[in-house]
Amino acid sequence: MESVPKANLEEIEAKLADPSATSDDLARMEKVTSILRSAAEARKFDQEGNKATLEAENIHQSAQSEASRFRISVAALLISVTAVFGPLMGQFYQVNKNAELQRQANDARQFSEAAKMATSDNALESIAGATLVSRFLRSPDYEHEARGIAIGVLTQSARLDSFKLFFPIVRDTTTRENYHDVVQLSQSLSERVSQETENRDKLKSASDSDKPSAEYLRAQMTFDQVDKERDVVGDFIAHLVRKLDPPDHKFDLTRAYVWGADLSGFDFGESVLTGAQILSSELKDSDLSRVSQFKDSRWSYTAWWRARKLNPLLLKYLETEYQFEDKDAKYFVGASRQEYLNETARLESASAKP
């Protein structure tokens, strides 16, 4: 709001003091005075408002100045900390990295030495190597390689100490993804049993019946050990298919050896049984209706007719190759010719249904 000129104020004061002023002049002068008073108060409010605005600006500038000084102080502190600890953190990282590289180098050297010793023909070296390799079976870096060595040793060695050392760890680390090497171990041990049987029988023929030769006795011991290992692995496979039973019920058991296993009630799904040996095992209420790959499979001393369902082609194969004989009744608990006829008739009727 603009101020009233000083000349105008003096003119108003002179008229108020003039004795000749009329009542109308006085009323007009009073109105003017009121206006001037209001203008003066408005100017006062404007001045106070300007003063408050100026003080607020001063406070804002002061706060900005303090904040700037604080940021500068914090930045300076961070720079100092970085300057001090930056090199130390870099050193710590390098030390840890070097330690990790050294550990990897040591593990690689130890594993290489252990692998050589485990596959040695020397009994003491082989046992020592097997002991060293066994600790790598749980290593994320060497698990696969160590497992391969362990399976190789179990396949080739007939020493009880090696089997007792390696197989429990192989067994405990077997999963749905790596069970195939256990099946392959079963295959290899079955082949070795055949070889050891042939070797033992030859030595037996050449040996004096009253005094067996040392070679024959060693061959007999080797046969017994390999045969025992094959049975242990076969029993584990039977346990494995139940434990790892996948949704599709499919396992590749090609040429697997299973003896004396309880597979009752088990759904074989589309499992591959080509060349498999399911011997002296229990199949009551099992389902083999979807098993289509069974060429050269063996079912000696297994009451397969007690299964709940059989693939029609598998049923025909079993009736032809492994039919029940009265002379074998002693190998089957509670088996009889009549039971065999009744159960095969049931299976034939079930397989004939669409």
Describe the secondary-structure layout.
Elements: H1 6-17, H2 23-118, H3 123-136, H4 143-156, H5 160-172, H6 180-206, H7 214-243, E1 257-259, E2 277-279, E3 287-288, E4 309-310, H8 312-321, H9 337-352
Parallel strand pairs: 1-2, 3-4
3D architecture notes:
By secondary structure, the protein is mainly alpha-helical. Among the domains are: 6-66, no CATH class; 245-354, no CATH class. The chain is built from nine helices and four strands, in the order αααααααββββαα. It has helices at 6-17, 23-118, 123-136, 143-156, 160-172, 180-206, 214-243, 312-321, 337-352; strands at residues 257-259, 277-279, 287-288, 309-310. Strands 1-2 form a two-stranded parallel sheet. Strands 3-4 form a two-stranded parallel sheet. Helix 3 packs parallel to helix 5 (160-172), helix 4 (143-156) packs antiparallel against helix 5 (160-172) and helix 4 runs parallel beside helix 6. The longest helix is centred in the first third of the chain and has 96 residues, at 23-118. It is elongated, with a radius of gyration of 50 Å. The model is unreliable at 1-7 (pLDDT under 50).
Sheet-strand content, in percent, reads: under 5%
Parts with pLDDT < 50 across at least 5 consecutive residues: 1-7
Largest sheet: 2 strands, parallel
Strand and helix order: HHHHHHHEEEEHH
Structure annotation, total helices: 9
What strand order characterises the main sheet? 1-2
Radius of gyration: 50 Å
How does the overall form come out from the CA principal axes?
elongated
Strand element count = 4
**Termini distance?**
107 Å
Provide the structure class: mainly alpha
